[in-house]
Amino acid sequence: GVTLADDRGLAAVTMRSVAAAIGTAPASLYRYVTTRDELVELMADQVNGEFRYCGPPSGDPVADLLGLADQGRAIYHRHPWLLDIPATGNLPGPHAVAFIEHTLAALAAAPLTAQAKLETIGLFSGAVRLFAQAEITQQRAGLDTAQWQESLGGYLLQIAADGQHPHLAAALAAQPGDGGPAPQQPLFHRAMIRILTGLLPPTGAHTDG
After folding, report:
1. Which of 43, 52, 72, 80 supports an S-S bond with 128, CB 3.0-4.6 Å?
2. For residues 51 and 56, what is the distance between their CA atoms, to the nearest angstrom?
């Protein structure tokens, strides 16, 4: 099923097509999975097994989660059909549970309540998914991130030139740097570091609950 979806998209995955790919009849496949939805859930969990967890957490939650974010983004690019599966509504499989466990381990040093840590995993995972979705959509349109940013910048500059949007004009005129992230840092890392820094209180801070 994963191979079919990688080659032809999620719509190509049916009980009949998967059965044909493994050289059996659809009736035989139904002995293992009862519906196509169940098959797709198993496929999603299979690719979640591509995460690699090397050693114990470093004690720096932002750095550890950034490493997981890089892996998650790469998995979406290898299997873009994952974006066609709703992000909510399915129960996590064994590999998804392993991801939750390792992410909680990375958050062990963060001064958050247990509930806040679980919420952080959801917000963090959603941010990775949205970023990957934007990149894959741009690629399908024949654009890379730099081209898209250049196109958007030119469009906004034309709008700002009418004088009706002074804050937009000022933002476009501002130069990067001046205490911000290093310009050579990838956009994905800059965005995820800002998100994670906002989600995680400084070490030593206290939370209620």
Report:
1. 72
2. 14
Global pTM?
0.84
- Residue by residue, DSSP assigns 71-125 as HHHHHHHH-GGGGGS-SSSS---HHHHHHHHHHHHHTTTS---HHHHHHHHHHHH
Smallest Cα–Cα separation from 51: which of 37, 65, 39? 65
Helix (H/G/I), strand (E/B), else coil: 200: coil
pLDDT of 176 > 70? The answer is: no
Compute the mean pLDDT over every residue in the chain, rounded to the nearest whole number: 88
How long, in residues, is the chain? 209
Q: How confident is the model at residue 55 (pLDDT cuts 50, 70, 90)?
A: confident
Q: Are 82 and 76 in contact (CB under 8 A)?
A: yes
> Using an 8 Å Cβ cutoff, are 87 and 132 in contact?
no
DSSP, collapsed to helix, strand or coil, labels residue 206 as coil
- Count of alpha carbons within 13 Å of 96, Cβ hemisphere only? 15
Whether residue 123 is predicted with pLDDT greater than 70 in this model: the reply is yes
Query: Mind listing the pLDDT tens digit for each residue in 133-155?
Result: 999 998 888 877 777 777 788 88
Residue 79: how many other CB atoms lie within 10 Å: 20
The per-residue DSSP string of 120-171 comes to HHHHHHHHHHHHHHHHHHHHHTT--HHHHHHHHHHHHHHHHTTSS-HHHHHH
